[in-house]
Every structure is written in structure tokens, then in C-alpha cells.
């Protein structure tokens, strides 16, 4: 039922609209016919049968009844015109209101005296002031002319400007031609203007000269008429220059649309300007009143444009045929819609609101759009490409940030694991060192005979066990030192020490290990080695690690040369062996923690040999390629 009711309403509404249009059309035709009848048939008002000769214009007999009809007709017609003018004034935009106001003021100035002297006084038989009516009509014509020139009523300003320009151009060229022809004929041909071959040649030359100067002279008159008829409007060259400057020095698309919108709003005196580029989420607005257009409305406008216009035409709100679209533009007080296309695809729309004073002329619309279009399409393509590059950069930056965040998280996890490992090593080293010290002490007591006599075989086994316990203690000390270095608890206890004696003690301690490996140690200590200030335990650990490493990786029946000497004010400790060496490609990692060369065949060393060193210089040389 609701569908039927709606259909009935639409049919009745459409029928009523058609009836109203038909009534208005019929009424207009009848009023026009009646007006023509009154004008063309004066006998309708004047009683010609009572006119005497000669005619006395101070008293003309009239038909009383017909005159009442005549007066009533024009009075009602005047009131209806004023009502329609008031309605148009209320519903119009500011520019149209000024046009309607000037028209109504001119009509009142014309009609009030006309009603008095041309309608009411003649009814009383007084024709003395009938001459005032035509003068009042002239005032009305001046009001119409002022509205045309000042507020573009009927939009004939451009036609007048171009007409004046061409008229001045023709007059100027005609004057130049006549004067030139006269002067040349008198001075050159020594005769008056006659038609012969010389004069024809002269006319052809003058015509060619005038054809050449036609365009420059036309531009001069065009500029002159533009200044006269379009004074106060934007200058086309300035507009192009400023738009080009904005488009050149602005790369960001959002900022570009906002700056262009602000300049257009200022130069064209628009209430509001808006750039809408939905795909990029850009809605640049400018002006006193802001336009808020959703993406759906933009697509609706573009659909209308594709169906009813062709690029680069513009959409004028007062020429839109779609009632819904016209209503949408009226709601937003939009007068002009300019589509923005790039590579034959819609990219957005430029909206121009109402003009602040005069209204837009077709000249402004065309020149503004054509000048903006050429610069915009080129710059828009560049800005669009830059926008895509920026989006790509932002996307890459986001991915890099995410990857960096993940790496930092993983790094923190590894740091926590490393800290846990260091704590475990430190704790385990402390726990292991106590029993190993006891084992080492008991083995030493057995070797010294404190627990009774031992056989040579038992002594050899005990020495091996003692040597292994020594290596284990050193290993635990290495672990502790590495852990302390990483946790910042590596303390240096400096005091005066005899580095030569420390070296002798360590060599004596490692003598058992060297004998087991069948490696000979050759110790060379300079007698001039002074006492130094250092941590004896750390120095002892470094020396022990270097010598032990040389013994461990040397082949049997080889010699390890150990030297300590005073060299140029510095103490130089050197360990030289004939072991397997370290490949050159791996030597950079030699002083790193837990490093072992790939050519090392033995795997029971800890690889902590050169993990730490406090100040000084630690170097390495090898013959391995």
C-alpha cells in the first residue's frame, strides 16, 4: 500500500507541476496579448468619437470603464512583479540579490511617478505632467545599465568589452590605412588617390602591413578594455605567475592543495574553495566558509560530469539539470565545480563557492580554469609521484622500525640470557674452585711425601693429576675473569711487583706440562727488567695462558722460546712457538672470547687464552698463509 501511495503521490505531484507550468504559460500569453492589444488599439481607452479638431492634448476623452480595467491591470501587474522580485531576492545568492535590488529600485523609481502622472492624473483630466513618465523610464534604463555593468546582470559585460575592443581596433586600422594611403599617394606617386596599378600595389603593401600589426594592436586594445570593464578583478598574468610559483615550490600534495585553494579564494574573491582528492584522503579547504564534501558526493559529481560534460568543461550550479545534485550544490553554496583529471582518470574536484561581491563572469571562469589546468596537470603528476614515493618511504620506514623493534627485543632477550649465563658461570666457578683447591692441596701433599712414600709409577700419575687440577683451576679463573669483565666487576689491584719472578714461577709451574708434551721451554729474561705497578694475578694469568697455549699447540720435540726484556722504556713479553698457527683470515678474531682457529685439531682447550688484557699492547704474528 505504501508503494502504491508513493506512486500516486508522485503521479499527482507531477501532474500538479505540469498543470502549474501550463497555467503560468497560458497566463503569460494572455497578459502579453492583452498588453499588445492595449498598445496597438488606442480606441480601447480613448473615446475617438468625442475628439475635436484641432486636438486639445490637455483634455482627451476616455472610456471610463475601459480605463479602470487598464489601470487595474497595470497596478496588479506591477504588484505581482514586485512580489516575484521580493521572492527572487530572498532565494538568491548575494550577487543575484544585488542585481534584483538594483532592478527593483529602478522599477520603483520609474513606476511611482509613472503611476501618478501617467495613470491617476489623466483619469482626473490632468495631462500637464505626462512628460515625466518617459524621463522616469530613462532612469529605469540607467538602473538596468548600472546593474549590467556593475553586477553583470544578463552577463553581457564580456560581449560589450570585446565589441568595444574590436570597434576601437577597426577604427584605428581604418585611420592608419587612410592616412598612410593618402600620404604615400601624394609623396611617392605625386598624385591624388586614383585607381591604377601603382595604387593597387600600394594598397596590397598596406594591407600586408596592417595584417602583420593586427594582432599586437588587438592585444593592446584588449588590455585597455579589460582595465576599463574588468577593473578590480584578478590579473591573468599575476594569477598564472603566483599559481606557478606555488606549484613549483610545494611538493607535498596536502600542502599544495591548501596553498592553491587559499590563493584562488583570495584572487577570485570566492567565499570558499575546496580541493577534494578522495583516493589520497586530501580535502584542502580555504575561505571564510568551509566546504565539507564526502567521497560519495565527489563520485556523484564526477558521474554527472562524465554524462553531461566533456573535459575541460566546468559545471555551473545554475545550469545543473539533476535536481538532487543541484540541491547538493545549493546546500554547500557552491557555484562552480571544476574536475581534476590525471591521465584520463578522475583524481578530484575543485569547488568554488559564492563570489564575495560581483559574481563570476564566464571570462573569469574560462581563463582561470585554462591557466590553472595546464600548470596543475603537470605539477599534480609530479606531486602524485612524490606522494607515492613518500608513501613507499613511509611504508619502508614502518617496516624498518618494526624490524628494529624486533631486533631490539631480541637483543634485550639475548642480553638477559647473556647476563644469566655470566651469573651461572660466576656461581659455578666459585662453587668448583673450592673443591679443586682441596684436591690440588692433597695431591701436592702426596707428591711431597707428607702422606707416606709413593712409588715412581704413583708419582707420575699424581703429577698428571696435579697438572690437570692446575689447568682446571686456571680454566675456572678464566671463566671468572671473563664473567667479571662483562658484568663490570673486573677489579685491578695495582701494586709493585717483580714481573720477572712471576714469569719464572709460571714457567716452573708449567714445566711438568711441557715435559708431558715432550716440549722444551727456553726462558730468556733480561737482567734490566725493573719492577712495575700492576695486578700480579692478572699478569700471571696472561703469561700462564700464553705459555700454556704455546705448549699445548706445539708438536712434540719442539721448542717454545719465552723472553722478557726492557725495550725502549717498555717491558716486552714474547712467547714464540712452532705450532700450527692461526689462518690470516681468522687473525682478527684472535683476541675475541672463545675463539678457536678452524685448523685446530685438538678440542679440549677452552679457547679463553687471549680473551682479556688490561691496557698495554697485545700482538700476534704467524707464518700460516
Automatic annotation (TrEMBL):
It catalyses: ATP + protein L-histidine = ADP + protein N-phospho-L-histidine. Residues 427-625 form the Histidine kinase domain. It comes from the Bacteria. PROSITE patterns: HIS_KIN (PS50109). Keywords: Coiled coil, Kinase, Membrane, Phosphoprotein, Transferase, Transmembrane, Transmembrane helix, Two-component regulatory system. CDD domains: HisKA. Residues 386-420 form a coiled coil. Its EC number is 2.7.13.3. This is histidine kinase. It comes from Candidatus Minimicrobia naudis.
Amino acid at each position: 500500500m505504501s508503494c502504491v501511495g508513493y506512486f500516486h503521490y508522485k503521479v499527482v505531484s507531477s501532474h500538479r507541476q505540469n498543470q502549474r507550468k501550463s497555467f503560468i504559460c497560458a497566463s503569460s500569453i494572455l497578459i502579453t496579448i492583452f498588453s499588445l492589444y492595449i498598445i496597438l488599439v488606442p480606441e480601447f481607452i480613448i473615446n475617438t468619437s468625442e475628439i475635436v479638431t484641432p486636438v486639445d492634448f490637455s483634455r482627451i476623452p476616455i472610456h471610463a470603464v475601459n480605463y479602470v480595467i487598464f489601470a487595474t491591470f497595470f497596478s496588479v501587474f506591477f504588484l505581482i512583479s514586485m512580489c516575484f522580485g521580493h521572492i527572487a531576492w530572498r532565494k538568491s545568492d548575494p550577487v543575484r540579490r544585488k542585481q534584483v535590488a538594483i532592478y527593483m529600485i529602478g522599477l520603483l523609481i520609474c513606476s511611482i511617478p509613472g503611476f501618478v502622472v501617467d495613470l491617476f492624473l489623466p483619469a482626473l483630466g490632468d495631462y500637464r505632467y505626462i512628460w515625466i513618465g518617459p524621463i522616469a523610464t530613462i532612469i529605469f534604463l540607467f538602473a538596468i545599465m548600472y546593474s549590467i555593468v556593475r553586477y553583470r546582470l544578463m552577463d553581457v559585460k564580456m560581449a560589450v568589452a570585446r565589441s568595444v575592443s574590436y570597434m576601437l581596433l577597426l577604427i584605428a586600422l581604418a585611420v592608419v590605412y587612410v592616412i598612410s594611403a593618402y600620404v604615400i599617394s601624394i609623396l611617392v606617386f605625386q598624385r591624388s588617390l586614383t585607381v591604377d596599378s601603382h595604387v593597387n600595389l600600394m594598397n596590397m603593401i598596406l594591407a600586408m602591413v596592417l595584417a602583420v600589426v593586427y594582432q599586437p594592436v588587438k592585444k593592446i586594445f584588449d588590455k585597455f578594455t579589460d582595465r576599463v570593464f574588468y577593473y578590480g578583478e584578478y590579473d591573468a598574468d599575476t594569477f598564472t605567475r603566483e599559481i606557478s610559483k606555488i606549484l613549483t615550490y610545494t611538493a607535498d600534495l596536502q600542502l599544495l592543495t591548501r596553498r592553491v585553494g587559499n590563493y584562488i579564494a583570495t584572487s577570485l574573491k570566492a567565499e570558499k574553495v575546496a580541493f577534494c582528492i578522495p583516493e589520497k584522503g586530501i580535502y584542502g579547504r580555504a575561505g571564510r566558509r568551509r566546504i565539507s564534501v564526502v567521497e560519495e558526493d565527489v563520485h556523484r559529481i564526477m558521474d554527472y560530469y562524465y554524462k553531461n560534460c566533456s573535459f575541460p568543461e566546468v559545471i555551473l550550479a545554475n545550469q545543473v539539470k539533476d535536481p538532487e545534485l543541484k540541491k547538493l550544490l545549493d546546500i554547500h553554496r557552491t557555484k562552480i565545480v571544476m574536475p581534476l583529471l590525471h591521465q584520463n582518470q578522475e583524481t578530484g574536484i575543485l569547488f568554488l563557492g559564492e563570489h564575495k561581491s560581483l559574481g563570476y563572469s564566464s571570462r573569469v571562469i574560462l581563463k582561470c580554469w585554462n591557466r590553472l589546468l595546464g600548470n596543475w596537470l603537470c605539477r599534480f603528476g609530479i606531486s602524485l609521484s612524490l606522494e607515492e614515493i613518500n608513501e613507499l618511504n613511509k611504508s619502508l620506514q614502518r617496516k624498518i622500525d618494526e624490524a628494529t623493534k624486533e631486533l631490539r627485543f631480541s637483543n634485550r632477550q639475548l642480553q638477559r640470557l647473556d647476563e644469566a649465563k655470566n651469573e651461572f658461570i660466576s656461581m659455578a666457578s666459585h662453587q668448583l674452585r673450592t673443591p679443586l683447591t682441596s684436591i690440588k692441596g692433597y695431591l701436592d701433599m702426596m707428591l711431597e711425601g707428607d702422606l707416606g712414600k709413593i712409588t715412581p709409577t704413583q708419582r707420575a700419575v699424581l703429577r698428571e693429576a696435579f697438572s690437570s687440577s692446575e689447568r682446571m683451576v686456571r680454566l675456572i679463573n678464566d671463566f671468572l675473569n671473563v664473567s667479571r669483565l662483562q658484568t663490570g666487576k673486573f677489579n685491578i689491584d695495582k701494586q709493585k711487583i717483580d714481573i720477572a719472578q712471576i714469569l719464572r714461577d709460571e714457567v716452573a709451574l708449567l714445566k711438568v706440562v711441557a715435559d708431558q708434551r715432550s716440549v722444551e721451554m727456553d726462558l730468556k729474561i733480561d737482567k734490566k727488567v725493573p719492577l712495575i705497578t700492576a695486578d700480579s694475578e692478572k699478569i700471571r694469568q696472561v703469561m700462564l695462558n700464553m705459555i700454556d697455549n704455546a705448549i699445548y699447540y706445539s708438536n712434540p720435540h719442539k721448542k717454545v722460546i719465552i723472553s722478557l726484556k726492557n725495550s725502549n722504556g717498555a717491558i716486552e713479553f714474547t712467547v714464540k712457538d712452532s705450532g700450527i698457527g692461526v689462518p690470516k683470515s681468522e687473525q682478527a678474531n684472535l683476541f675475541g672470547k672463545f675463539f678457536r682457529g678452524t685448523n685446530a685439531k685438538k678440542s679440549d682447550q677452552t679457547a679463553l687464552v687471549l680473551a682479556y688484557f688490561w691496557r698495554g699492547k697485545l700482538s700476534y704474528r704467524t707464518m700460516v698463509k
